[in-house]
Amino acid sequence: MRGLPILLLSLALSVFVECQDNIPDVSLTPNMLSVNEGEEANFTCSPLLEEAPALLNTRNPGASQSQSIQNDDSRIRVTDISNNDTGNVTRMRVFTWINPILENDHRREFFCQIGSFESNTAILFVNHAPDITIGGETEFTVIAGATLNVSITVDGWPEPTLTWTRDGARVDLTLSKSGLSLPSVSLDDAGIYTLNATNAMSSDTGSFTVIVRSLPVFEVGDDARVSIRVGAEVVVNCAANAFPPISPDNITLTLDGKELELDSNFVHTIASAQTSDAGDYVCTATNELATESVTITVEIGNVPDK
């Protein structure tokens, strides 16, 4: 009786080893395949078991859930073949993915399932020409200083090389997954933007226009104070930039409520200043967006020469 447990253990191990030997080594080949869009992609699953059909499953990269591709799926053609090159007949099933277009996803993972047994994972890459999609409008209007976000997606495999131009001149811009972001837009950012995407298959271009609207901004900047001596020249600059542009009639200069004359460059010049010319000179500019003003305080006296 003492040897019975040993005998039972030996039998159990024998059955376990035999069961292990009967577990099929299911494989899906090739492990990795790259085809051009529209070409057929062939994966071979082997060996077949008499009692269990081979099914092809797919999952998105990184996803745990898989989706079975039925043998009658219009995208798949199934062929059973036998391979006896080595003298041993091995039944295999070939799955042909017809005209693989992966709906803007160039990569797909497959595995073969025979009964409860799963094969290795095989990866299909589909090479296709770049495709640029610009969401929403093709003309964007933004106020200077604001951030402009443009939804742009670029599809294609191999990954396309991207180049940007603005009004035909190369510019360095970075496209994120969500699109293009232009922070603190200025008048210099206005223009026609063109994105070119190129890979080994082909190329594609997409364009949009950026219009920057700006409140009047004076060249002198903020309010200023200047001190000069009697007899010196006084120059008051009221030039301002804006979009839409400011008409000449909408830039004025006043001193104590009296409007003064400006030249074609919106400059007022006093050749020889007197104490009566001292005061607060107010430049005012108006466009469609707003009216802005800046004050230049002029002090005139016996200021030493520098």
TrEMBL record:
GO CC, any one term: plasma membrane
SUPFAM superfamilies xref list: Immunoglobulin
Record-given protein name: Peroxidasin homolog
Positions of the Ig-like domain: 130-209, 216-297
InterPro entries the UniProt entry points to: Ig-like_dom, Ig-like_dom_sf, Ig-like_fold, Ig_I-set, Ig_sub, Ig_sub2
Domain of life: Eukaryota
GO molecular function, one term: cell-cell adhesion mediator activity
PANTHER family noted in UniProt: BASIGIN RELATED, FASCICLIN-2
Swiss-Prot/TrEMBL keywords: Immunoglobulin domain, Signal
GO annotation terms (biological process): homophilic cell adhesion via plasma membrane adhesion molecules
Signal sequence segment: 1-19
Record field: transmembrane: none
Pfam families: I-set
